[in-house]
Request: fold
Amino acid sequence: MAIKYIPYYPDTLEGQAILDNFVRTRRILRYQGSDGIVERIKRGMPLFETESKEKSGENPDHNLIIRGECLSACAYLKEKDISVDLVYIDPPFASGADYAKKVYLRRNPDKAQQIADAEQQLDIDELRAFEEKMYGDIWDKERYLNWMYENLCAIKSVMSENASIYVHLDWHIGHYVKILMDEIFGEDNFINEITWYYYNKMAPKSACFPRTSDKIMLYSKSVNYIFNTQYEEREKAQKQLVRKFVNGKAINARDENGNVMYVESFEKRIDDVWRVPMLQPADTNEPVGYATQKPEALLERIIKASSDEGMVVADFFGGSGVTAAVANRLGRKFIHGDIGINSIQTVRDRLKAQNAEFEILEIKDGVSLYRNPVQTQDKLISLIKGLQENPSLDKTFWTGSINDSKLGTIPVYLPNLLDSSSRVLDKPQAGRLVLEGISNLGDEIKKVIIYYIDIEDYWDIKSFIDKQNQSTLIEVELRDLKQVLDDVVLEDEADFEVSEFETQDLFKVKMYKTVINSFHSDRIKMKINALNNKGEQQALASGKPFKRLSISDNGLETIEYISVDCQNSDKTAPWHSDSEIKIDTSGFIIKDGKKSSEYWDGTITSEKNPLRLKIRNICGDETIWNL
Ligand SMILES: C[S@@+](CC[C@H](N)C(=O)[O-])C[C@H]1O[C@@H](n2cnc3c(N)ncnc32)[C@H](O)[C@@H]1O
Reply:
């Protein structure tokens, strides 16, 4: 539960065009004679406890990587009195798609030769890769706009007076959000609608003009905003009149003979149509394996145009970390927020390679139970014993039902973890569940189960539901979802040993070597088993051959990253990485952020005695051991 709620910047501007057919997070508290309206926006942004997970360097600029929802990240910043000078967000677009990440088994140092032989003959991708869901982007418009409204109000609350905000969307929902932005920031504070034209997109043939652009809407918080004109090179030099100022007026300059003068101009001001190529899978430098990753060139323009060195640049839907990486490279401070663990790890590794200093915070809001909300939601459905889809129940309320030998069908409600606005079980939500969900169930239903992740006050809500539900004889059981997951998260296991050695050179320096003998992740094993079973079933149905993915006995190919901490032995202290190795998808190691052409040999060395060891598996789960 949130520690408290912090007021938003709720004053939307009078007299603006508004969308009139959605409730703007107002929720109707309709129950027995009451049709009162509870404005969630009045409740404020939820402030949760935070945990410092890692510190890299001294970090005098207070650069932050925050794992958490945009709303709670803003609540944290507001509470700490941190304001931001530039915001870029590239939130889910309501594109109707789920985004996945390709997960690769790595090169196992003990099996390198066998794998190399196998690579000669087999389709290696098929042999060692699978997909993991990262985030979902399936919304109905009304829910999306309510959610976005609250996010934009939260972001405005932490923007400094001369800050600007760039909101990156596309044709799916962009123009509805523009009207929201007029309402929240004011039409007078609209600066530009930028068209990002990614001319190099391979658009499939279809009965429309190829869709090769996104919209980036730029607003400021006040009329005093930072704007630095940006220039780009012309393809061909152009003749331009030379102008000069006389008494504050620009006039044409003339030579001694009275003729107007020209110069050859090689650059031009960047206008609101940006021709920036989108990243291609074949690009070798930028892509970090994150679906929807945007090019650095795009962020470079934004950051240079709307901030100065030393200012704070924030991205609350940071994904691969492009904003933080470019901000850091351009001498700005950065704040990266995202709910997904893959995003946090990706930006962390990306910034480490730039030698950036930062702190990683995790917001304890109960959503990050698993790697990300989509996977948590899927996992929960699979974990609730006996839960099955039930097409005869209203999907707005019931995820499915459980069949009980005595009570018959028991409808089950699960909160939608992807939608922060319906995550807390409060009176409006409970009232709706009773009035529109439970009351409409047939007479044969004796009991329902309502799972909650966050509840306003358990006893208060319980007695509220009982009171509202008097007209039915249906029993309502409230259950805490967190317990379902706590019971099943299995830590990974590793077998390792630490020894001292001396370097072979003249200096004979004492060093420490940690050897990983084996590594086992039940979570990966279960995932691979499930994929193999699915593949075999499909193969049986289609008659096509299927190659099983397999893991070796020592499991070293399921490791993505290893780090040792030589400063803290306390398990709860923020991580301090004294030495780290990341194994890339080709098996080469990235040591302390620097790429190399060496393969991993199953060890990690450090100058100091390692006190803790951290291993991240290829799906992104991290486990820490004391040495
Ligand atoms: C389109 S991607 C951002 C891509 C990013 N601009 C880049 O270049 O890599 C959207 C991101 O928003 C994150 N996300 C979705 N809902 C969120 C929420 N409520 N709060 C914070 N992050 C969220 C997803 O995990 C995803 O990484």
Summary: Residues 232-269 form one domain. Residues 141 and 173 are 8 Å apart (CA to CA). The pocket of S-adenosylmethionine is lined by residues 69-70, 90-92, 135, 290, 292-294, 316-317, 319-320, 322, 337-340, 343, 420 (CB under 6 Å). The longest helix spans residues 522-542.
